[in-house]
Amino acid sequence: MSAIPFDTTALFIAGRWQGAAGGGTLPLTNPSDGSSLAQIARGQAADVDAAVAAAQAALQGDWGALTAAERGRLLLKMSGLVLAQADELARLEALDVGKPLKQGRADAVALARYLEFYGGAADKVHGETIPFANGYTAFTLREPHGVTAHIVPWNYPMQIIGRSVGAALAMGNACVLKPAEEACLTALAFARIAQAAGLPAGALNVVPGLGEEAGAALSAHPGVRHVSFTGSVAVGALIQAAAAKNAVPVTLELGGKSPQLVFADADLEAALPFLVNAGIQNAGQTCSAASRILVQRPVFDTVVQRMAERYRALRVGPALDDPDVGPVISSRQQEIVEGYLALVRDSGLHIAAQAPLPPGLPSGGCWVRPTLVADVNPAHRLAQEEIFGPVQALIPFDDEAEALAIANGTPYGLVAGVWTRDGSRALRLARRLQCGQVFVNNYGAGGGIELPFGGVKHSGHGREKGFEALYGFSSLKTVAIKHD
Ligand code: NAD
What we know:
Blueprint: E1 11-13, E2 16-18, E3 25-29, E4 36-41, H1 45-60, H2 62-65, H3 68-84, H4 86-97, H5 101-121, E5 129-130, E6 136-144, E7 147-151, H6 157-170, E8 174-178, H7 185-197, E9 204-206, H8 211-219, E10 226-230, H9 233-245, E11 250-253, E12 259-262, H10 268-280, E13 292-296, H11 297-312, H12 331-346, E14 350-354, E15 371-374, H13 381-384, E16 391-397, H14 400-407, E17 415-419, H15 423-432, E18 437-440, E19 460-461, H16 468-472, E20 474-482
Nicotinamide-adenine-dinucleotide binds at residues 151-156, 178, 180-181, 211-212, 215-216, 219, 230-232, 235, 238-239, 253-256, 287, 386, 388, 414.
């Protein structure tokens, strides 16, 4: 039996599976061994046109006719199907992304939870009546934008589909999803689940393809009324410019250089697993990876030593073996990360620890050694640029003011963590850190589907996750009735 139990070369448009209009395909590679995994459809502008037309028809047809409660029930049904297939989805993600099985399964469970959360919320979003002038009744309506575009990256396909497509469907939009060309098996599996749950044709359309072809056509399409983009800063700017021509809103979930701040009074035992995991999870290819660890000087050496012990014990290996750290997504990404490791050596930086690469790793896999670098100057490129690999920079600081300046001193502002037993300091920093989420004495809150997420500065704008996403995926209409 093939490793992939469905036809990967088809696009999903108007409830039907069909080849790309141009007939082209693109190769998917297994990053754990470099083997050829499958071919996917190479969607282009004509396919995007068809997908947008299908979504528009769905809004005018069966999908648009559903009540909010009926939409919610469909999402709940999809949630159950995702959960039932969580192991298989994790296997697909392991093959496609190189994501260790346990981490892929957590993504599948998160996708199910997003669908549950937004399914439950679908009929609980409403407008308000507004006290206004005598002789008027004024109220607001929350309406879907219409056709929404969802352009997602390869690192967390299931979670990002859950938070953006889940919220958009709950509000009654019809979606066109463009997964990343490096990894889109779970996006295709998700479309099959939507079909099996009975989602009306055209409510969800999936068009795999290259960013500069299918992605560019989708972000510039005049029939699209909202664009949700998760990916790099450079492409985010292109998306916003394209959407601006049609005057449509965009949500940009971009990169990060997120810090965790460890104060001398912190519970180090509690902090340690979070300090390391937030750097190596998904081989460091996480937008909210804690790639900078800022440590107050009295405990700096202890933290370096304790993190180094954990690094040396990390198991690196093929994703299906469920290691701590799998390969990175591609040989291109491997080269990028190796470029930063060469920079570390050339700059004479101190490597505190590296995880070993075990003998016998498949030679075609995209392996990089998880690397902990100590005493990094906050202005160094290693402490400023998003690496997107399992590399963490440790930076010492003396006091709270210095820690804050370092934490805020990059172009990014996605997430921050603060480890301290001083409640006043935690509250002060929570307000002063420039980012979209602050975690005190934890990092990531276990995924926190209910917690609005997004960035400031180059990390983007707009919020997904939580109830807030439902406002982003809808438009407010004000009605004022004069009646005397
Ligand atoms: P990328 O920007 O290269 O690609 C993301 C998506 O955009 C892909 O589907 C790609 O095909 C598409 N794309 C590429 N060029 C395009 C174009 N010209 N027009 C339209 N679409 C285009 O990003 P990547 O390298 O795949 O992902 C890594 C980046 O994503 C990192 O910077 C990471 O921090 C970021 N990210 C952010 C979040 C978040 O929630 N903030 C989550 C995950 C990843």
